[in-house]
Amino acid sequence: MKPARFDYARAGDVADAIRLLGSSDGFNKPLGGGMSLGPMMNLRLAQPDLVVEVRRLDALKAVAEEGDCLVVGAGITHAEIEDGKIPDTTNGMMRFVAGQIAYRAVRNRGTVGGSIAHADPAADWPTALRALGAEVAIDGPDGARVVALSDFQLAAFTVALEPADIVTALRIPKLSPGARWGYYKICRKPGEFADSIGAVVHDPDRGYTSVVLGATDGAPLDVPALADAVRDGKDVEIDDAKAALAAQGAVFDDYGNQIHAVALSRAIKGAFAS
Ligand SMILES: Cc1cc2nc3c(=O)[nH]c(=O)nc-3n(C[C@H](O)[C@H](O)[C@H](O)COP(=O)(O)OP(=O)(O)OC[C@H]3O[C@@H](n4cnc5c(N)ncnc54)[C@H](O)[C@@H]3O)c2cc1C
User: Fold this and answer.
1) Closest CA to 211 of 225, 191, 196
2) Ligand 1 centre distance from Cα of residue 118 (Å)
3) Span 59-173: which CATH code?
4) How far does residue 268's CA lie from ligand 1's centre (Å)?
5) What is the pLDDT of residues 10-39, one digit of tens each?
6) Per-domain residue ranges of the chain
7) Average pLDDT, whole number, for the chain?
8) Orientation of helix 254-271 relative to helix 238-247, angle to 10°
9) How far is the CA of 226 from the centre of ligand 1 (A)?
10) Residue nearest to atom 33 of ligand 1 (CA)
């Protein structure tokens, strides 16, 4: 199927992108790598009147270390992260996660900002970056703001963006040298969207521990009881993870209960494996 008719514009800079997106009452969409918007338009699940290309904007390709944060432009691709083109301030976690996304052709075009804005529950960055405690930098008609990723993704495919807003960057806290991380993705074939994702970050020097479950029906889920267990140095077996999820009311079908508990338990074990 082909997309419905739409207009196309390439923004010159962030201000231009915001102006173009707000330029009519129609349904206007920023375009990152097009790896999700393209298929959705082809299937006519999305029928924007105007598509505004933002992925090549200098501001969205910028990467900088600002104090305790790595600021990664929204237009940075998964492949650029996989290839080590950005500083490794997460002890290899971001590079590992990037390499798990789809296959190389998708990673060459798909962007970290597009992935966060799209908010597919089965995608990798929403879960991994939430575990890292990332924030989302947004610019729009009302000015720039920064929102914790945990407040940004509201539900499946639903984020805290106004119609002419764009994601400009992700602000990712740097891990201490001794920090531990684990990431365990369950999918039927390597590189596919996940059936479950467990993500763990334990950084005692910063007093930070996070355990997140991804690929549920909604936004990634914090699992505080398991973060407590990690902080206390406890082993987390599959049944412990199942019990923790049940105790916070995160109950799925039998298959879901099992794979989510497996993903969490293996992510935690992986964090302390070496
Ligand atoms: C075959 C296939 C397999 C895939 N497998 C995986 C996988 O295993 N794991 C995974 O995580 N992902 C997977 N993806 C998704 C892919 O990795 C991209 O991350 C994803 O498509 C979104 O990134 P994009 O830059 O292509 O965004 P686009 O497709 O351009 O845009 C997606 C949405 O985000 C919005 N958007 C884009 N950029 C911005 C911005 N800067 N500000 C505000 N809104 C913006 C668009 O308007 C649109 O609504 C797969 C995709 C394909 C086609």
Assistant:
1) 225
2) 6
3) 3.30.465.10
4) 27
5) 999 999 999 999 997 789 999 999 999 999
6) 7-46, 59-173, 180-271
7) 96
8) 120
9) 30
10) 118
